[in-house]
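User: Hey, quick favor. My workstation is busy. Could you predict this chain's structure for me?
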Amino acid sequence: MSLGTITHAMTIRLYQRDPYLFEFESKVEERDGDWIRLDGTAFYPGGGGQAKDKGRIHGLDVSDVEERDGHLWHLVPGNQFIVGGMLWCSVDWEKRYDVMKGHTAEHMLFGALQRIEPQLLLDKIDIAPELKRLTVTGPLTWDIVEEAERNVNKAICENLEVQRLEMDREEAEESGVRAKLERIHGDTVDVVEIGDFDSAACAGIHVMETGEIGALLVERMTSAGGASYNLDFVIGDVAVSKSLELSHITLRTADMLGCAVENILRTASNIKKDVEDRSRALSRLSKHVLRNVEPVELNGVKVHAAIVPGIARKELIERAEDIRNEGGIAILISITDQADFVISAAESTGVDCRGIIESCIKPIGGSGGGRKEFVQGGFPNPSKAESALAEILDFLQ
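Assistant: No problem, here it is.
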């Protein structure tokens, strides 16, 4: 139940007037348990992927901020604030400033990407101290990212002015502001203009000059499913430090490969192709070996036991099933960076394959499961494959 008189004036959003304001005094307008509503606040409630502010009110932690019917409410666990009382409030400035810089950098990065590849669409953003990411859909390559990154850092060095403007919808559309107008209600559009570099609709908080960002580095591009990509980036000192780290890795890699730095990609591409060719050849050889395993006879039962390198477990399963259907026993182990095994036994043999896992596989740190006539699993140390196979044959005898 709410305590005190409810007023209808909307919360004054101090962060819109001055995003650099992080300490202020405000009056409690309403209280609802641990939630309080102030007459004005600098706490940003988040939105559009930009993280919410945290901080303290009268010495107590603010753990959440949310909007309700145009009012901003603050979750201050354990508070006993009185409606009408004045409180000293403090936004976590380090977090706020990092998010402001990251948000402006995100605008610049996507704007630069879209100028190079107009078909790119922005799906969502995540801007917080622990993660800065934009998710896009459309054609994207590292060449495009690299060019956009260069353009953004050039604009950062030029220390362009960042302005917040209010335009009517028609003006915003005619001036080429990047905006999804169908999602914006009302006759006016809040626009963030970054020099002559970028102009986009946004109600979030930003820095005043691009030089405050320091630097930008895209450190990772991953698939977000379909034709979508996640671009993770860092800014400021972190971007500089990460750039140096990646530079040293590049230099060491070139030294290891015995090539010039500018030839790393070509050398790596050749090595990859060579590995893939060898892998395919090994797979063909392993399949041939698997099909031609000479069985040994134990107590009148044919046992097909083999260790084959680089073959998929699917191949092991198919061959093991064939052997079981023929009335025999299969013990097949594939070696990659670990050892995968498949064991099968015809019902007529009386062998319970689950007992093999307990007696021979688990003692060497492996695991697996299945039914009486068929089990599969693996063990982490492939060097134990020979001894494991011998143990299994002894067990069967």
